[in-house]
Each structure stands twice: as structure tokens, then as C-alpha cells.
Amino acid sequence: MSNGMKKIWTVAVTFMCLYGTQLSLFAQEAEGKAKPSQAGFMKIVFGGSIVDISIWMMLFGASAATLAFIIDAMISVKRDKLIPEDLVEGVRESLNEGDLNSAIAACEENPSPLSNILMVGFSNITEGFEVIQDSISAAAEYESEKLLQKVNYLNMLGQIAPMLGLLGTVTGMVSAFAGMATATGSAKATMLAAAIAGALWTTCAGLLISVPALISYTLTRNNAIRIILESEATVIDLIKTLRNAEVDAEEEEY
User: Closest Cα partner for 67 from 185, 167, 153, 186?
Assistant: First the structure.
């Protein structure tokens, strides 16, 4: 794991600690407004069976992972990082001067999806402009897939989190109705209400994870695709300089 990802995960875990504290305070506030026998948040999380505790741990892990991937997407999917202006200007200047080696050196000095697409175009420079266009399109699609690999995890987390919440609610309801068999009188209704309230907390937590994950996934994915398409258009525009040079050379021969 790179140092950047370690920092992101550190921030995510720290945020989750704060998030858990706020959720606990919210549960305690709800407890104060409800009946005194209603369980507190910590008891809801750790007072159930091993299955219930495991579900809560998975929810906390999904929340930390969601935050980490959101931060990583905000850092990595940026136009200035994926389409460096210095690289574009350097390559354009080199190609205008007819210096392909300098353009290649500029790409090697500035690694990015744009430089990778440019290098593919340069490697097919002798094959004709149509082949160059096809290779650029294939390279852009490959870079898009690489860029979206981490982003796709947000979509996965956004779909898994509510399922985990629903699973926790179902297991909690099973435990609640099973406990009714041993309760008697007015205590039965009180125990059932408290158990159902505790079971619904997992659904609440799952939705709190899912909504920002899916929103971030959609926005980041659209932004990444737009930037990759812009990268492809930029590369084709730069490569046209070489095509014009070839046309001028052919006209001079005649």
C-alpha cells in the first residue's frame, strides 16, 4: 500500500471514530426521548449475538472503506492531474518543431494517463493516421478502465451496505420474536419494541453509507469519463501536427 493510500485510510478510520461517536450520541438522544428501558447505542452494537456484532463490524468497515475511496477519488480524478498543462504545451511545442524525441521525453518525464495515450500514438506513428486513431481510442479505453477500477468499489459498497443493514434488521427481528417466547405480560411489548428499535439501527447505518457512496460513484465516474474523452481528443489534436507535416512533405515531393 502506498503512503498516499495509508494517509487516506488513516483519515477514514479517524473519521469513522468521530462518526461512531456522533451516531452514539444520536442514539443516546433518542434513548432519552424514549422509554428508560430502551437500549443505548453501544448495547445495540455489542449486546447482540456474534452474528449481529459481525454485521456491525462489517458496516463500520464498509463506512471506512467508502470514505477512503471517496477521498482517493477526489485526489486522483482531477483534470490537472490527468491532463497536465505543462505536458500538453511541451508536446505541442516539440511536435511543431518536428522533434518527436523531445515529445517522447516529455511524456516519460510526466507520467499520466495522457502521456500513456500519447506514447501509444507515437509508437504507431509510421502506421498511418487511421491506425494511430484506433490505437489512441484503445489506449484511452484502457486508461479509463484503470481509472474507474477504484471508483467501481464505491458502487459495490453502495449496494452492499443496505444489504448488510437489512441483514442486521432481519437477524434482530428474529431474535426479538424469539425472545417474546420467554417474556410475559406487559414486559413482552416493551421488550419487543426495544428489540425492533435496535434492529432497525443497522438499516439506518446501511443507508447512511449507501447514499453518499452511490452519489460519489456517479459524480466521480462521470467526471473521469469526461476527462478521459478530453484526453483522447487532446492526443488526436496533438497528433494532427504530425499528419499535417506528412501531408506537406508529400506535396513538396510533387
Answer: 153
What value does the CA radius of gyration of the chain take, rounded to a whole number of Å?
28
One DSSP character per residue, 101-165 reads: HHHHHHHHHS-SHHHHHHHHHHHTGGG-HHHHHHHHHHHHHHHHHHHHHHHHHHHHHHHHHHHHH
Cα 141 to the center of its chain, rounded Å:
18
Query: Cell numbers 481510442 label which residue?
Result: 137
- Return the C-alpha cell found at 106: 516529455
CA distance 7 to 185: 54
The CA distance from 52 to 50, in Å, is 5
Give CA–CA dist 50/38, Å, rounded.
21
User: Worst-scoring range by mean pLDDT, 47-51, 62-66, 88-92, 169-173?
Assistant: 47-51
- List own/partner pairs for 136-141 with CB under 8 A and 24 or more apart: 136/232, 136/235, 136/236, 136/239, 137/232, 140/228, 140/229, 140/231, 140/232, 140/235
Terminal C-alpha separation, the chain: 59
Among residues 251, 240, 232, the alpha carbon closest in space to that of 95 is found at 240
- The Cα–Cα gap between 227 and 237 comes to 15
> Which triple of cell numbers denotes residue 178?
424469539
What are the pLDDT digits (tens) for 114-143? 888 888 888 877 777 778 788 888 888 888
